[in-house]
Amino acid sequence: MKAFTVSLMLIITYVLSATIAVASGSWKGQIIDIETKEPLEGTVVLAVWERVYRTPAGDKSYFYEAKEVLTDKNGRFEIPAYTPINLLPLISYMRGPYFIIFKPSYLSIEWWHPNYFLEGSTEKATELTELSGKKYRLSPGLIELPPLKTREERLEVVGDLPPSIPDEKMTKLIELMNKERIELGLNPVHIKRGSNDLAGRLTDVWKNGVSTGHYEYDSNSNRISSVTQGFSLAGSYDAQDRLLTYGNNTYTYTANGELQSKTTSTGTTAYNYDVLGNLLSATLPDGTIIEYIVDGQNRRIGKKVNSVLVQGFLYENQLRPVAELDGAGAVVSRFVYGSKVNVPDYMVKNGVTYRIISDHLGSPRFVINATTVVNVLDRDWMDMLLKSKWEGMKTALMNGDVEGALGYF
Question: What is the tally of helices (H) and strands (E) in the chain?
Fold first, then answer.
């Protein structure tokens, strides 16, 4: 009887929080070049709606619907009338649409004010708005986009696909984005998508329409199982939610809660810390001892392998390494900052200056010199680095460690 009552309540809640769509005024506009005032034919305009659930932990938003069109020869677009309405707004509400505008070789933008594109809009024209160092203008029914005139500008903008929108809802955006990436010498985007449960936990991942991951959690949100590419792993935790086993790997902890050891099929890696919790050394399964030198501000300033100093860092402040040193103390890399607080825009190495293009999370994605993309840093859905042509890039840009598979934050 209890199970029936719970099921009935869930059904009632779902029905009452359902959404219906009614007709309203369509969204119309024109997109032009801000310099020449010429219309931009073939620009993708993607309108996106989200459903937002009210939860004790705060509002949680999820993709609900999207409408995608291309501008015509006059640069004009029209999104058909569509207004989702909730039957029970106390449980959830609809938000949107917001607009994603993309045209190869032009600045791409997201715009969260749909009233600008409704007929008879009384919104005021915006002043010139700066994004990625370029300025665009938006007036009721009109978007003026700046052209991107250098390879570096185009690399900064091309980016990745919006993570929450299903592929079938943005086929034109995928097509144009891949066209731009190929022209820039990059690989086409690998279409990866994930879905989350109502607690915001990742449950499924797809790549190019094929399931590549499924994850389950316990009542404390600890991941207790994963299935990736046919391989199944199970995890267990102690009363303090510390990971004890995952697959064939086992983990132990110090009295302070730091990771003390990790045992895999190849052996055990042991870790040692100071009283402040800074990692001081790691002993690998083959007996190699990696030591870390930490200064009085808890910054990692040096690395030793079997008691031999092999790397060092100089800092500008708490967050910014400005130089990488070799074991003899000579400068091997310099870092120049500008657009982000803790991610360099440029690196000078072996007499060559490289531009570092990072994503919206601050993770480095491309490294280019004057004419060529010299390194692409591929990342998985957790933003973990999967591949880099330069192993040194992992340590130089992340202050991490290749041998011990360690990251330092």
Answer: 4, 32
pLDDT of residue 171: 86
Residue-range domains of the chain with CATH = 20-189 (2.60.40.1120), 289-409 (no CATH)
- Determine the Cα–Cα distance for residues 48 and 115; give it in Å rounded to an integer: 14
Q: Are 253 and 241 in contact (CB under 8 A)?
A: no
At 378, the pLDDT band (50, 70, 90 cuts) reads low
DSSP 8-state secondary structure symbol assigned to residue 188? P
What pLDDT is recorded for position 406? 54
Residue of 124, 88, 82, 97 whose CA lies nearest to 14: 88
**What digits encode the pLDDT tens for the residues 64-113?**
889 999 999 999 999 887 766 665 556 778 888 889 999 999 998 888 77
For the record, the structure tokens of 277 come out as 């919790």
pLDDT, mean of residues 279-287: 96
Cβ partners under 8 Å of residue 145, min gap 6: 31, 32, 33, 34, 40, 43, 101, 103, 106, 107, 109, 136
Cα(78)–Cα(80) distance, integer angstroms? 6
Mean pLDDT across the chain, nearest whole number? 80
Phi, psi of 8 (to 5 degrees): -65, -40
Classify strands 76-79 and 210-217 as parallel, antiparallel or unpaired. unpaired
User: Would you say how long the chain is, in residues?
Assistant: 409
Instruction: Please list the residues that pair with 311 across neighbouring strands.
Output: 303, 326
Coil, helix or strand at residue 347: strand
Report which of 155, 179, 149 is spatially closest to residue 368, judged by C-alpha positions.
155
Cα dist. 403→9, 377, 400 in Å? 53, 18, 10
Q: How many C-beta atoms lie closer than 10 Å to residue 226's C-beta?
A: 18
SS3 351: coil
Dist. CA 262–CA 134, nearest whole Å: 48
- Checking if the pLDDT of 124 tops 80, the result is no
> pTM for the complete prediction?
0.58
Q: Which pLDDT belongs to residue 409?
A: 42
Phi, psi of 173 (to 5 degrees): -65, -45
